[in-house]
Design brief:
Structural class: mainly beta
Distance between the termini: 37 Å
Largest sheet: 5 strands, antiparallel
Helix content: under 10%
Strand order of the largest sheet: 4-3-2-1-5
Oligomer: single chain
Strand content: over 45%
């Protein structure tokens, strides 16, 4: 597949190894005729050592065939996260180092997670696009009649902090985009 088609969570072959894409930085060309460049933050699978590499939009990478099993987060075992397969309840255990920043989006009983499996070993997860988290600490809305809607920091129940609109208060359940870490609206559930 071409570099511009690759999404976070894809697993690709690179330099004789297998890597999961964790982060993608897109740089726009300088001047005319420049190519868009993509900088991928990748982690080796298995092992989890970090590698940064840059690609042109048209560079080809081979996607690795892997099983994607839908699973639900079950519990933490020390530093490891345990997910249960939605069909046959196989437990998949992944270390916190492998989960990385995604840990900030994982709550008890979170569903819609895909565990990626290579050679019967769980190697990575893909989170749902949005998760529901609870605001546990955010400054009160500033009363002053200003029409500006300044975002403010909010600490969520998993320990991460994101920016939310001023009208969001403590105890509210909100949607958070797991790709960008951005506020996605009030949760309806």
């Amino acid at each position: 597949m071409k570099a511009f088609d690759i999404k976070k969570g894809n697993v690709v072959e690179y330099n004789g190894g297998v890597y999961q894409i964790r982060d993608i930085d897109r740089s726009s060309p300088q001047g005319r005729g420049g190519n868009v460049r993509f900088r991928f933050t990748m982690y080796s699978v298995p092992g989890g050592s970090k590698l940064d590499a840059s690609f042109d939009a048209d560079d080809s990478l081979t996607e690795v065939e892997l099983l994607r099993r839908q699973a639900t987060f079950s519990y933490k075992d020390g530093d490891a996260f345990v997910f249960l397969d939605d069909e046959d309840y196989t437990p998949y255990q992944l270390d916190a180092a492998v989960i990385g920043d995604d840990a900030g989006y994982i709550t008890d009983g979170l569903t819609g997670i895909y565990v990626q499996v290579i050679d019967e070993q769980p190697v990575a997860i893909q989170l749902p696009q949005y998760v529901t988290l609870e605001v546990i600490e955010t400054p009160p809305e500033l009363k002053g009649g200003t029409a500006t809607k300044r975002p403010k920091p909010a600490k969520l129940n998993t320990g991460i902090e994101i920016m939310v609109p001023e009208y969001i208060g403590n105890g509210e359940r909100i949607l958070v985009n797991t790709d960008t870490g951005e506020f996605g609206g009030r949760a309806t559930e």
